Amino acid sequence: METLLQKIEGYRREIEGYVTNGAEAAEQFRIAYLGTKGLVKSLMGEMKQVPADRKKEFGQILNEFKQFAEAKYNSLKTVAGKTPSLAAAAIDLSLPGDLIPVGSRHPISMMRHRIVSIFQRLGFSVAEGPEIEDDWHNFTALNLPEYHPARDMQDTFYVSTDPAWLLRTHTSNIQIREMEKGVLPLRIVCPGRVYRNETISARSHCFFHQVEGLYIDEDVSFADLKQTLYFFVKEMYGNDVKVRFRPSYFPFTEPSAEMDISCQLCGGKGCNVCKNTGWLEILGCGMVHPNVLTNCNIDPEKYTGFAFGMGVERPALLKYGINDIRLFSENDVRFLRQFSGVV
Ligand code: PHE
């Protein structure tokens, strides 16, 4: 008797989980459970095994089970019968399809592209180089011999010391590598990631991105440098932006300058982004030092050139209204998703 009751319980669960997909399946259910050779009939045949004092109880349970199976059959039948019209009502062919999630370009890539494409329109081509560099290409050839105090301007990550391999501190290494190839005139922009041993904060990071530029030919002058950078600033920040050059120092350029633009946020009135000066420093530049040309076997009596270098993170922070540089490298999709569709 107990095993019979367990069996019925098992069938009940089986029926509960039964899902149909059409009239044919409903009919199969009827044959299996309610037909003349079906399960309910065969359970009734078991009645004779049940002890006399429990026949009433078993009969009741079996009856309930039969009703349960019949109810299930009725519901399967109605659903099956209604399926075509229900389906027709449920499918609206005019609805738009499921959206396929699209990725986005990283804001740093977008900004690098903006910068590079402006110079490409002026005839500069893109050159790239290694991030792990030797001392010559990162320092010595750039007029920074060993023990030169200006090496301290850029705290360097060394991969090894003897021989010295390091993570490049600027993309100027590419300029040396291109000049060494000896094909002149040379007009390149060098985008890439650079590394400096700096404390990570909202404003600075131990790696960031630069775009540097180099133009070497006969008779290149500081006027060419200024005109090129004026064009860049107008394309990048609009016609109204004001520009100023301040004298500066870099070992690899002489004379050297830093270029400021009027603050994009306060329009030059002074705010906390420009530290109340009204100006934002955006790049370093200058005429390539004769020693650098000589180091790359270029005759400084015949050729002159200019170089400039800028960071990518800062303009990206300003353009996209981001207040923490660390967001760029954390790969948080909630941050990155906001740039899909932005160019
Ligand atoms: N290499 C310099 C830096 O990383 C930038 C620069 C490039 C300055 C070219 C002048 C000329 O700070």
Key attributes of the depicted protein:
343 residues, alpha+beta, BirA Bifunctional Protein, domain 2, 2 domains, seven-stranded mixed sheet, three-stranded antiparallel sheet, 11 helices, 10 strands, elongated, binds phenylalanine
How many β-strand stretches? 10
- CATH H-level superfamily of the largest domain: Bira Bifunctional Protein, Domain 2
Number of domains: 2
Which stretches are low in confidence, meaning pLDDT under 50 for 5 or more residues running? Answer: none
Distance between the termini: 75 Å
Share of helix, binned: 25-40%
Rounded average pLDDT: 90
Largest sheet: 7 strands, mixed
User: What bound compounds does this protein have?
Assistant: phenylalanine
What CATH architecture label of the largest domain applies? Answer: 2-Layer Sandwich
Q: H/E series, N to C?
A: HHHHHEEHEEHEEHEEEHEHH
CATH third-level topology of the largest domain: BirA Bifunctional Protein, domain 2
Order of strands across the widest beta sheet?
1-5-6-10-9-8-7
Description:
This protein has 11 helices and 10 strands. Helix 5 (107-121) packs across helix 8. The protein has 2 domains: 2-84; 107-339, Bira Bifunctional Protein, Domain 2 (BirA Bifunctional Protein, domain 2), CATH 3.30.930.10. It has helices at residues 2-16, 23-34, 39-45, 55-90, 107-121, 135-138, 172-180, 222-237, 290-295, 313-320, 333-336, and strands spanning 125-126, 132-134, 158-161, 164-167, 186-195, 207-217, 243-250, 253-262, 279-288, 304-311. It has a 7-stranded mixed β-sheet with strand order 1-5-6-10-9-8-7, with helices on both faces. It has a 3-stranded antiparallel β-sheet with strand order 2-4-3. The longest helix is centred in the first third of the chain and has 36 residues, at 55-90. It has 343 residues and is α+β, with helices and mostly antiparallel strands. Bound molecules: phenylalanine.
